[in-house]
Structures are given as structure tokens and as C-alpha cells.
Amino acid sequence: MSTRHNALNLRLSAFMAVLLCALCITTMPAVALADQPDTDIVCGTAESERQDAAADRPDISALHAIVVGKDGTVYYERAADEQVKIASITKVMTAIVALDNAPLDTTITVDHAAATVGQSSADLKEGDTMTLETALRALLIPSGNDAGMAIARSVGAIIDPSSDDPYGVFIDAMNKKAQELGMDSKFTNPHGLDFDGWEGDMHSSARDVATMFSYVMRNDDFRALTSSTDNVAHVTGADGTKREITMVERNKILGTNGNIGGKTGGTYEALQCFVGAFSRENGGEIYTVVLGCDGDEVRFADTLTLANWYYDHIVDYPAVTSNMTAADGQLLVARATDSDWTDKTIDVTAEDPTQTAQIFSLAGEVKQKLDLKTLSGDIKRGDDAGTLTLVQDGHTVATVKLVCAQDQAAPNPLEWCLVQLDRLFRLVTGQPQQAESSLVATAPSPLEINGTK
Q1: Which listed site, 38, 190, 207, 401, has its alpha carbon 20 to 30 Å from 172?
Q2: pLDDT (tens digit, 9 = 90+) per residue, 353-365?
Q3: Are 142 and 250 in contact (CB under 8 A)?
């Protein structure tokens, strides 16, 4: 009996242990995995409303993200306005303030505070001097905190030569620039450290980072710096000795998949972050931001997922689509009123029937706006007939010049008299005085267009 009782207790204990493990597993915090939540926003509308197919939605794990076009169009966002830590992406604002206030040949000096700041370093030594251009490369390529401190103190002294706190002057300039750009961000240092004595009320958001980066990418000097693959810095030591520093590029996707630059960031609180610029033939230039990624590989994988998602949805949309042909054999766009007659219209076609417009297929349906000229007199094939405007999401994506596709002579005197009699009859009987214009061309859904890039 005792043996059976002990066996039963053992089986019960084993069962309870398994149950406890199962409960622990189900209550553990979920590991960050790629996801497609309905709170994601595409072209200004949440997926809870859009309900795009899974294949048309970015599958990323970043806690915060955004994709912005060079013109400011926001294509995708995830919790993009939440203020969080951005770590070394802070250095983009450091570069902005430096470039706004000093020429590239300005001498930057590394003081004790800069040389001993710690963490990510460009291996600068106390007393080193270099040009601002070299210091910015040391700031951006290996994400040198030492370079950030040196730039802040040296350029701060230029911004306000009378101040005995050039470092504070530079930080104030960073925050003033953020306000000028309409950002809600706050900066408390030039490098982004948020631990080991650097804790503070520093914060930014994915949208703010995109705003900051799109602004600085208008600066040709910064574009050259962030896209450069030259990782050797030339500095002069305190004793006058010149030396070379070989720096490790933190942007692991630079020069691939259309990436033309970017800035990494990462701390225990910020997790892994990246802002990147991409340029491809079809789709132009965009900026992507991912914040709060679980690892270095994840931030670059998420970045490429967002870039590819955008470019994969760029389509060459035909300016004219029609199931009918005009008198000249071209696609019939419209029939325009010939005001000299009561019953005649003129076939209208596109001057360039092969015209296309690159559009983002998820930005909504394309609408047509027809603006025909008043036609009268002797009409010749090729005469200006007006325009057809294509509009998507409130933006004009193409303007098509229209031309007459046929000749039509004006009425001779006898015909003119007959036309007037006809008009009188139409007036009495309540009929139109002339044939009405009509739009024949159609606007297919962008998602139905083949040849997505």
C-alpha cells in the first residue's frame, strides 16, 4: 500500500512540475518576433481599417518604425510618435549643429573629457587635433563618442566665443535646432549615452529621427560623409606626430540594396536602432527608421524589410488605359465637343500614349480629372485638346497632354444655317444644343498593375 502511495505521489509531483513549467512558459514575456499588428499605419490609415493582405504589409519586430519619402510623404509608421531613447542616432543632430556652424576645415581638439568618455570610440587621444571633416567621419563611421565630445566643445566655442561653457552652448544649439525642425525631441549630450553617469531626460521618436535625417540629407557635405567607404582618419597627436586611425564601419548595409548612408544606435534601454537612406532607380530616395530592435542583425533585417516593402510597391502606372481606339488608331481618351456642330465630337488621345507615372500602389485608387479645351473652327489632328490629370491620395501623379485625333472642317455657310435650325429645334424640344464631351479612359487599381518593382 505504501509503495503504491509513494508511486502515486511521485506521478502527482511530476504532473504538477510539468503544469508549473507550462504556466511559466505561457506567462513569460514574448520574445520580439516579426509582426504585422493592426495598429501599423500605411499611408495615413491604420491596418485595422485598411486590412491589407499579409503580403502587402511589412513584417518587422522593431517597436517603433517609419518610412518617409524625400518629399515628406509618410508611407508606413509603427508607434512613430512615442518618445524613447535613440542612443547614438543622437550623433546625427551633433553633425547637423556642427555643419550649420563651422566649415569643414575647422580645427577640432580632443580634450580630456572627450578622450575619456568611454564606450563606442574612434580611438582619439587627449591633445589630438583634426579637421571637422575628419571628426565628423570619426563621429559617424565608428560612432565615436570621443569625436562627439570633441566636436561639441570645439564648435560650441565658435557658436558663442564669450561663453565659458562651450559644451553647454552646443547642447543648447542641438535643442534649438530640434525645435526649429518641429521635433519634440530633447538632447542632453552629443553622443546619446544614457547610462554610466549620462542618464537624463533625453528622448526622441521615429518620426523625429526621420525629420532630422531627411533634413541633414539635404546637406551635400553630410551626404558625402555618410556614404563614404573611406574608413581611415588622419589626426595629429599632442606632440605633433601624425597618425592614421582605421575605423570600423557600423553601418553593415552601406552600399548594398540601395543604401546610401545611415546611423546606428544602441544602449540597454534604447535597444538597437538604425536610421537609413536608400535610393533606387524606381522609387527614388526614402528614409527608414527602426527603434527598439532586439539585436544588431534584427535592426538591419527590419530596415531592409521596410526598404524592400516600399520599393516592391512602386509601379509604372500607365497614364492612359482604354478599351477603345480613336480614329487614328491610338487609345481613345475622350470625346470632345465640337461647338460648331450639334451632333459632332472629336476623338481625343494622349500626345504620348506610352506615358507612365511611378506611384506607390498602396497609396489608394487613382482618380482622373479631364480638362478639355473648347474646340471650334477647322480642327486638325494633333491640335491641343486639353489635359487629363491623374490624382492619387490628393497628389497629382501625372498630367497627360491631350491632342485631337482627327480632322474636322468647320461648317460651310449652308451647313451653318442648318446647324442653327437644328439648335432652334433642340431648344424647343429641350434637347442639348451640342454633343456632350465624355471621358472614355479608365483608371485601373494600382494593385492590378503588373511590373511591380
Answers
A1: 207
A2: 999 999 999 999 9
A3: yes
Is 19 part of any domain? no
Residue 123, amino acid? D
Q: Tell me the HSE value of 223 on the side-chain side, using a 13 A CA sphere.
A: 11
C-alpha distance from residue 30 to each of 20, 22, 276, 295, 346 (Å): 18, 14, 27, 15, 66
Mean predicted lDDT score pLDDT of the chain:
91
| Rounded Cα gap, residues 237 and 109, in angstroms | 10
Secondary structure (3-state) at 207: helix
Both 286 and 328 in a single domain?
no
CB neighbourhood size of 284 (10 A):
15
Which residue reads 502587402 in cell numbers?
A: 56
Domain count, the chain: 2
Q: Which residue has the cell 480629372?
A: 369
Sheet arrangement for strand 232-236:
107-109, 129-131, 232-236, 242-246
Task: Please state, in angstroms and rounded to a whole number, the distance separating the CA atoms of residues 324 and 389.
Answer: 19
Same structural domain for residues 187 and 301? yes
Find the domain containing 362 and state its range.
318-448
pLDDT higher than 80, residue 279: yes
pLDDT digits 0-9 by tens, 77-118: 999 999 999 999 999 999 999 999 999 999 999 999 999 997
Look at residues 277, 312, 347 and tell me which one is the last residue of a structural domain.
312
98: part of which helix (H) or strand (E)?
helix 90-101
| Cβ within 8 Å of residue 373, ≥6 positions away | 336, 384, 385, 386
Lowest-pLDDT range of 117-126, 205-214, 253-262, 303-312: 117-126
pLDDT, tens digit (0-9, with 9 covering 90-100), for 140-165: 999 999 999 999 999 999 999 999 99
Q: Residue 41: which of 32, 33, 52 has the closest Cα?
A: 52
- What's the CATH number where 253 sits? 3.40.710.10
Q: Is residue 5 one of the residues assigned to a domain?
A: no
pTM of this structure: 0.86
Return the closest-CA partner of residue 287 out of 83, 101, 109, 92. 92
Of 280, 312, 344, the position where a domain reaches its end is: 312
DSSP letters along 282-341, please? TTEEEEEEEEEESSHHHHHHHHHHHHHHHHHTEEEEES-B-S-B-TTSSBP-EEEEBTT-
CB neighbour class for 355 (10 Å; exposed up to 12, middle 13-18, buried from 19): middle
What per-residue confidence (pLDDT) applies to 404? 95
Measured at the CA of 74, the angle between CA 70 and CA 76, to 5 degrees, comes to 125
In terms of domains, do 299 and 404 share one?
no
Element (H, E) at 372: strand 366-372
80 is a domain residue: yes
